[in-house]
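Input record (one chain):
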Amino acid sequence: MNSLSWPHLEWTTVSLIGSLLVIAATAVLGWLAWRASGWRRSIGLLELFRLALVCLVALLFNQPEWIEQFRPREKPTVYVLADRSPSMETRDVLPEEGDTTVGSQAQTRQEALAPLLDAESWKSVSERLEVIIQPIAEPQAGRGTDLTTPLAAVLEQGKNVRGVVLASDGDWNEGSPPAQAAAKLRLAGVPVFGVPVGNRTRLPDLELLTLDVPTFGIAGKSVRIPFTIDSSLPREQTLTVVLKSSDGEEVTREVRVAAMGRTTESLTWKPRSVGDFNLTLTIPTQPDELLSENNSLTAPISIREEKLRVLVVESVPRWEYRYLRNALSRDPGVEVSCLLFHPGLSKVGGGNKDYLKQFPTGLDELSKYDVVFLGDVGVEAGQLTPEQCRWLKGLVEQQASGLVFLPGFYGRQFSLLETELGELCPVILDEGQPGGWGSRTASHFELTELGRRSLLTRLADTADENLEVWEGLPGFQWYAPVLRAKPGSEVLSVHKDASNEYGRLPLLVTRTFGAGKVLFMGTDGAWRWRKGVEDKYHYRFWGQVVRWMAYQRNMAKGETMRLYYAPDQPQLRQSLALNANVMDRGGEPLTAGEVTARITAPSGKSDTVQLTSEGDEWGLFAGRYTPVEPGRHDVRLTSKSTGGTLDTTFFVQGEATERVGKPARPEVLEEVARITRGRVIAPRKWREVVQSLADLPEPPAIERRLQLWSHPAVMGTLIALLTLFWALRKYIGLF
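The corresponding structure, as predicted from the sequence alone:
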């Protein structure tokens, strides 16, 4: 620092004239007093002392100050903050201002800023200014663009900051508003020159936003894959989308994409073999489309051999039971076990190898089943016990199995409502009509709006065809005495004609309970759907029910461990519930121990989630994880107590915080420049940026003022001198 110092008086005309008059009057009166004393030497010296004191007071009355100025010795610093976020890779900078033609000459936002960020561009001012080119908002997994922090840090990092150049598309999505940092720079006298880049409006583009691929599929079973296309094209387009698997198989479908909006469609892929595959969906590039980098998405899927274990419990072999058993036993992906109580007979029914002689005797036996069907059975002698009902509740709640209620005209399921299973039932039944309602005239289902969209009720490939199928299904002649659905349940189908004070009677109702799912089927006439079409709809419906209920439970399983999570298609920054069932080496549920899940994100960053015991009886361990990156996440589940491990993956859907193709936000830079009294300059005029910084005036020197007139030391000295003056008067005999 270079410094200068000098004294200074903050006088006014009144203070100066008044001071001179007082000094003059004091001098005259002192001369007269000296003459009257006979020119005594002591009196003369005392009067000179008095005159000096008056002069000192007059000087202080004119506010004397000691001024020091400091100027930095180092060169002024200019910071060039260059945005490196992923959105800067958007290719929407056209060759000329206002030119809307699309071609290969269009630049990315990063390319358009290249001349400004070249050190050679600043050579002309290098002798006067120190230019620091600093990248900001560099790509980081799970992070967005923060413009406020680097702007505010300029004052902390640099000395003698002359100005700041902010080169960005203005798309900030993390941290505080940049205007807050701009206010601090304004107070420090540092202007910001904004260099906005990118187009304010989205250029003609088709973007594949989402590809919702399930975690796993079954070899030989069709997989429905929804996807969403976002269009900024001014007219409707008919496209042929292509889904290609990593083994070379292709599926195509024509899709009509709405203009200036989002279109959600789906296609069906039928895997032929087991293994881990990557599915890539691609939409063709249109002639007037500028951005083609966002026209495809890839997601993983695991294809397995299916073997779901299903338990069907019934009292007597009514028609609904017989055809349900046939449907499940003929499904190659299902292993069915049946238990017929046959009330009134000395032994349970059976005969084939898939019949059980008794209900599973322990949790280890029951926990093998993915789905349990409860027909017209209840809690009574020779049937279920309250303890077995408690086991069934735990199987659904703690181990993500499915439970299907299939009531009958005996009304035995009313007794189940008095056990712990009553909490699982998704409907409220009419106790005054335990046998339900029957009629010689066939009644029919009617899908609700939710049922039309559900995968459970999808009996045809398209929504219109599916509605026609349901309307044409043979009717039923008995239905359960349902009053209404419980809160939190989802009604997929209602009685087409019957209603009560709560509305139409719900017949097909689902709900989630704990980690598992529950389905209530309010009729026993689904077997009639075979009329004229044989097994087509009947088998398809129950096959979908079993797979829907068992899906979550079978996301990932090993010999002693099972991992499942909810939701089954995680979204970015959405809390993910992790649940693990862990068995010890003997096959019993693990009652205590340390279970951890190590999750590795696509960027390679790893997090460890400690799972805590939730149900000792079922070996359930639970935890939560919030993904901040889209894409495939690798999971390793380990248990120190058993030494078991389980490796699996899950795929996080959603748009990255920073992505290519979003419109620029130059208004952000305009606001920052306005607050700091800077300027906004186009990237092509980068030379003006350099010149504007070179022409900035020298900042004012730093001044430090010492106010002598009010300084405590000066006041103390003045009081001491007055005291001395009074003492001298006494000493020479004056009173």
